[in-house]
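Q: Please design a sequence for this.
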């Protein structure tokens, strides 16, 4: 296993809560798609802060904006108008189906905002006394108490009960199961107020949404008044080769959220909605740091750079190149891998369920060879490099991965 001897890892663990299963690696600088540890070793970064460093590390446009904005004004609170916030909101509205934007600091906060908005809409517009939000099994929506309840994975909920009431779970991409759940809930003293799904499940194993399923779901929501909420925290802002994951599905949500890649690694979140369900009034929801001049200035730079440099085209081309390379590896190791799947530069490589080898084993082996990857559960490798990744870096990642796998097999 990688040993970064120039940094005292035990000293770190003495003071920082052990809420993460960290790899024994301390990183201190990055440029483009590469990062370096504290002993000076270089790694090809196909984690990108877990689908967050949209423009890679130390991108010149981000460096310039960060420098200028921190020297000017970084925080004032939402007691006042913030021009950078207004400009970013306009860009998001102009490049999506949204009409209005609420800014916060993270994906969990954005999803909390969506949940609160859906509940108010249920009470005040749909006249539902006990609203229920349907989410998917194997989903992931955050670590706050409401969003961990919305997350359809019991392993994330253990020891945190009593959970927040008003959520129920259905299999992902199963329209009949969803119809049955709506009917069963609506027979009691509750009603379904919203369906909240990821356009592509990330933590659940990099599972893309089925186009037909989402189109049928959109029709159901239109017919019943149920709100359709999409969690775009991981897939949004270009990662799928389109600005938003829902564009791959041929539908528009009523509410959707973004965070990770929005400011390329600077903390920010956004909850966006259509005009008809923008019913928050002053004092009903807020965020002290949300939409501050610093974060929104950087996010606007990231957005404009994506557009100006036509990075979405690179995402589409490099994503296809990566899937071809990974599929070739899977074909050479049919006893290990079952499938390669994904959109753009969010891809998963699934291991067979009945073998002892896990995704963590391969992540560790790849790290030894200088490639950083992230698992999506025990049996799926996740590939989420910066959106500026080059053809040469894709080729290198595929080559290094194959070396790592070969080493594990010897």
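A: Design:
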């Amino acid at each position: 296993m990688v040993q970064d001897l120039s940094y005292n890892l035990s000293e770190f663990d003495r003071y920082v809560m052990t809420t993460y299963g960290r790899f024994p690696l301390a990183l201190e600088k990055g440029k483009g798609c590469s990062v370096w540890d504290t002993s000076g070793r270089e790694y090809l970064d196909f984690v990108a802060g877990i689908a967050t460093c949209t423009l890679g590390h130390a991108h010149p446009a981000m460096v310039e904006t960060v420098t200028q904005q921190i020297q000017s004004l970084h925080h004032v609170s939402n007691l006042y108008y913030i021009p950078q916030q207004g400009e970013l909101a306009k860009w998001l509205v102009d490049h999506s189906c949204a009409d209005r934007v609420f800014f916060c600091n993270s994906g969990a906060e954005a999803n909390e905002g969506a949940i609160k908005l859906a509940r108010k809409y249920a009470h005040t517009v749909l006249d539902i006394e006990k609203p229920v939000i349907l989410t998917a099994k194997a989903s992931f929506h955050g670590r706050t108490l409401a969003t961990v309840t919305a997350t359809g994975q019991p392993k994330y909920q253990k020891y945190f009960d009593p959970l927040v009431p008003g959520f129920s779970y259905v299999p992902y991409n199963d329209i009949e199961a969803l119809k049955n759940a709506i009917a069963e809930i609506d027979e009691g003293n509750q009603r379904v107020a919203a369906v909240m799904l990821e356009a592509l499940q990330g933590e659940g194993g990099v599972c893309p949404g089925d186009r037909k399923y989402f189109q049928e779901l959109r029709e159901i929501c239109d017919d019943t008044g149920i709100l359709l909420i999409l969690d775009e925290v991981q897939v949004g802002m270009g990662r799928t080769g389109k600005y938003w994951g829902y564009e791959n599905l041929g539908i528009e949500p009523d509410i959707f959220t973004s965070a990770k890649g929005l400011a390329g690694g600077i903390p920010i979140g956004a909850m966006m909605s259509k005009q008809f369900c923008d019913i928050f009034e002053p004092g009903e929801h807020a965020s002290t740091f949300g939409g501050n001049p610093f974060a929104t200035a950087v996010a606007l730079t990231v957005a404009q750079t994506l557009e100006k440099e036509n990075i979405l085209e690179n995402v589409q081309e490099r994503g296809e190149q990566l899937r071809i390379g990974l599929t070739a590896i899977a074909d050479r190791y049919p006893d290990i891998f079952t499938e390669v799947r994904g959109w753009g530069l969010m891809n998963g490589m699934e291991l067979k369920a009945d073998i002892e080898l896990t995704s963590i084993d391969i992540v560790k082996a790849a790290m030894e060879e200088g490639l950083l990857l992230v698992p999506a559960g025990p049996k799926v490798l996740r590939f989420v490099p910066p959106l500026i990744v080059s053809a040469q870096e894709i080729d290198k990642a595929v080559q290094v991965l194959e070396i790592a796998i070969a080493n594990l097999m010897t």
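Q: Thanks. Anything notable?
A: The mean pLDDT is 96. The longest strand covers residues 191-198.
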